[in-house]
Amino acid sequence: LDTYIGLPRCSDLGLNGLVEHELQLRKGQANDVLHEIRLALADKAVLFRTEVRHGRNYTMKSHTWRKVADLDTVVKRYATVYQRCRRQMIALGADSSILDWYKPLNQNDLTASTAVADPNARGHRHDSLSWFWTIDIPKDTDKNNWMSEFYQVHWLRAKAKKDRWVEEVELLQLEQGWTQNFFSHQATLWKERGARAVLAGDRGLACYAARQIDMYTKLGRICQ
User: Fold this and answer.
1) Domains in the chain, number
2) Are 98 and 178 in a shared domain?
């Protein structure tokens, strides 16, 4: 392959076209490996839901945890292949647009999602899937029936999070208006009290009302 020959040597031999060809092959390899990682992580999440949580005795739990360990081995093997593939893409002179798409994998990226195991579990409202789940791989649900449910659960969680953000933005905008209206109302209220104090000859209350009017007026301007 061109990466083992070296880019300068390939350029001397006029093999620049092969460099681009190998880069495309590496991208395809990276997609395949990431697809296998996604399948293994989805299987692991479903395994926690269907077997780990329902293990009734030591034998069942031991057998289930062996399956989990086997899936961890599969994930680590494919992660190693992906990292090697990414290094080869760097050696082939891949630009930032490619490397930003195929990011480095870390241990947190290889953690199975618990949303499928228990969609209503507490403390996971801010959890999100790793970056490689956003890569569109055609027909990735055909090989594994659980992938459809996996995507559905996380799509609903993402939609719920988006809806909460939209609601929070609306509330913040309304709260700003409510606060401004409150300051305006207080300023008007103290104007009326100050006017009554002047008519009653209560200078102390009139001075205090003037101070309150000034304070609420300034606060209202800050909110604008």
Assistant:
1) 2
2) no
Give residue-wise pLDDT tens across range 108-158.
Answer: 887 766 655 555 555 555 566 777 777 666 555 555 566 676 677 777 777
Q: Is the pTM of this model over 0.85?
A: no
- Can you give the three-state secondary structure of the chain, one letter per residue? CHHHHCHHHHHHCCCHHHHHHHHHHHHHHHHHHHHHHHHHHHHHHHHHHHHHCCCCCHHHHHHHHHHHHHHHHHHHHHHHHHHHHHHHHHHCCCCHHHHHHCCCCCHHHHCCCCCCCCCCCCCCCCCCCCHHHHCCCCCCCCCCCHHHHHHHHHHHHHHHHHHHHHHHHHHHHHHHHHHHHHHHHHHHHHHHHHHHHHHHCCHHHHHHHHHHHHHHHHHHHHHC
Domain range for 214: 163-223
